[in-house]
Structure formats: C-alpha cells, structure tokens
Write a structure and sequence with these properties.
alpha/beta; 6-stranded parallel sheet; 5-stranded parallel sheet; disordered N terminus; golgi apparatus; Fucosyltransferase; EC 2.4.1.-; Glyco_trans_10
Length: about 375
C-alpha cells in the first residue's frame, strides 16, 4: 500500500502511455485518481508485455545442422574398374577397418547417385571412352587411383583437370596410402626380440627383369663381390610359392625398386624384407625419403657406399658380427609392420575421406607435374 500511496502523490497526465525502448523498459503514466486495483492491473499488464517483448527480441536459435565431424554420413563408392581385373570380393568397411556408412559397389547402375567413383589409372588408359562419354553428376567426385611409379604411368599430362581427388602412395595425395608402414607395438620399448638363426646371406626376388633397369645394372656389379640367390620367373622357385617363407632364411634382402621416384617404396621392402625378418638393402628414392617411413637403422641404402664392392664388404662384416647385425633389428622392440591390403583397404580409405569431404569441391590440376615431382 505504500507503493500505491506514492503513485497517488505523482503528478501525471490524464492519459496512460506505454513506451518500449530498445533496452526493453516500460514507463507507466496513470491518472492519480485511479483506484489501487486498476493501478495494480496496469502494472501487471506492463510486466507481461515486457516479458513477451523480451522473448520476441531474443535471437532465433540456429537449427541443428549435421557437421561432417559429428556424425557418419552414408556414402556410395562406385568402383568403375576393379584394378587389373581383380575379382576379389568387396570389403565391409565397418567390419574390416572400422569405417561405417560405406557402400562399396561395382554396380554401374548406381552411377547417377554415387557420391564418388574410383578410377584406376591403368584401366582408364585402356577404356577411357567408357567413362568420359557419360554425363557427370555435379556433386560427384572422381578419384584418380594409381600405385604404379611415374615411369610406368603413361599419359599423365592428358588427364589434368578431370579428377577431384588423388589416391596413391605419394605422400601428397588426398588419399594417402603407402604400401606399408610401422605401427607402435602395444608393449612399446619392452618387447623382446627373438632372432631366428639364418644360414644364408642375400636373397632377391624379381619377376620383371629388364637389362636397362638401374637395379639390374647394380646387381651385375655387386655379384662380382658377393653371391646373391635370385628367385622368381626364370630363376630359383619360391619355397611353397611364398616369398616370406623363402626370404625368412636369409639375413639380407635386396629391396630394389624397378624405378626411383619420391615415396615409391613398395612391398619389396615392407613384405619381402621386413615381414620376412631380413634386413633390407634398398635401392630406390633417397635415404632421407626412406627415413620418413622407417628408422634410420632399419635398412641399408646402396647410396651409403661409394661402390658395390664397399657394400659387399659391409654385409660380410655384419655376417661375422652378430651384435652389429642385431642392431638393424632394434626397431622391432617398438613397432610392428603393417602391409597394406590391396585393394580392400584402399576402397575403405577412400570412402572415409569422401565422407569427410562431401561438401568440399576441388579439382586435381597439374596432376602430372605433381605426381612426377
């Protein structure tokens, strides 16, 4: 009642006015002779209007929008050609690699609705007209897939601007998948290394023999100083048709690439040598390039020696010194070797990258210059 008494004492005009500023306040002017009930009602009405206006002027909350990182998007990945006509079954990416939402198919009837199409370079060169004549959905991504070296990848300059994403062993690829890599062991640093006794010294498995190859020319010089057992087409037969079983009886393996290019480090190192338990003697890209993927003391590079004779002498020295030889296996305390599974792992890796980049549009330009670098 004290509040009502104060209102009655005010000098106000005979009309009642309501004013609402940007700061949301209300000024009430009432006639001094109104009853206390009317004043209370007007005050209540003012507060109600103030509350309503406050709610109306609040910013409208944004609707929830799915983000690429917060949920899994279902993706249809069309394999236009199975690489080299490979007839293996397509993978269940969730079961095999923990990548949900991937529909991997070779059914070309889904082309118009596919989120991405994987196009294998070698097959594309032979059958390009099958694809380029088809109208292309505007949001669909074409993925250029190639795991051959630049020396064996023709017509690169003719396909600039066709593809959206690249997938290869090259570290700069949109979908980077090397032939193999090292994974930290669960008992990192505490693993015991058990060395199998090996009686043989140097092995080499080769099926693509060409006289002009650098690796063949190096072998001709190297064999003058150290014997090498050669397996493969036209040479010794593999034990139980298995490279790993064959090489596991040797201390060293010649992991010689068919051509020397950046990041081109193939199964010759990962599977033939490391999985087999042999120390790889590598010929390929530079030592610095190998050290991006391996500890420096996990391999022997031919460029570390001034000539094949020096290399042969060093291998003989390691053969006579078990402690020095075991040094090249010290990395096994900390790591396991993962050999990439062709082609299931590639398809699932591509599917995951497409999921993360559904709304991103880009074009792979200067593909030849990039891949040849």
């Amino acid at each position: 009642m004290e509040l009502l008494s104060e209102w009655k004492k005010k000098k106000c005009p005979k009309s009642t006015k309501y004013r609402f500023s940007h700061q949301k306040y209300c000024l009430i002017v009432v006639e001094a002779h109104h009853s206390s009930v009317l004043v209370f009602a007007l005050a209540l009405l003012c507060l109600t209007i103030l509350l309503v206006l406050s709610l109306l002027t609040l910013p409208t909350p944004e609707q929830d929008r799915p983000t690429l990182g917060s949920e899994t998007r279902s993706v249809t990945l069309l394999i236009w050609w199975l690489p080299f006509g490979n007839g293996r079954s397509l993978p269940d990416c969730k079961v095999s690699y923990g990548v949900p939402g991937c529909n991997v198919t070779t059914d070309r009837r889904v082309y118009a609705h596919a989120d991405a199409v994987i196009i294998h370079h070698r097959d594309f060169l032979m059958h390009w007209e099958e694809l380029l004549e088809k109208p292309r959905p505007p949001l669909q991504k074409w993925i250029w897939m190639n795991f051959e070296s630049p020396s064996h990848s023709g017509s690169l300059h003719q396909i600039d601007g066709i593809f959206n994403l690249t997938m290869s062993y090259h570290a700069g690829s949109d979908i980077f998948l090397p032939y193999g890599y090292l994974e930290p062991h669960h008992s990192y640093g505490n693993r015991q290394i058990r060395m199998k006794r090996k009686r043989r010294l140097v092995a080499w498995v080769i099926s693509n023999w060409r006289e002009e190859q650098e690796r063949v020319q190096f072998y001709y010089r190297f064999r003058r100083y150290l014997h090498v057992d050669i397996y493969g087409r036209g040479f010794l037969p593999l034990v139980n048709n298995s490279v790993v079983k064959t090489v596991s009886g040797y201390k060293f393996y010649l992991a010689f690439e068919n051509s020397c290019h950046t990041d081109y480090i193939t199964e010759k190192l990962w599977c033939n040598a490391l999985v087999s338990g042999a120390v790889p003697v590598v010929l390929g890209p530079s030592r610095e390039n190998y050290e991006r993927f391996l500890p420096a003391d996990a391999f022997i590079h031919v460029e570390d020696f001034k000539n094949p004779r020096s290399l042969a002498s060093y291998l003989k020295r390691l053969d006579r010194n078990p402690a020095l030889y075991r040094h090249y296996h010290a990395w096994r305390r900390n790591y396991n070797v993962h050999v990439t599974s062709f082609w299931a792992e590639h398809f699932c890796a591509a599917c995951q990258v497409v999921q993360d980049n559904l709304l991103v549009h880009k074009t792979a330009r200067d593909l030849a210059s990039w891949f040849l670098s």
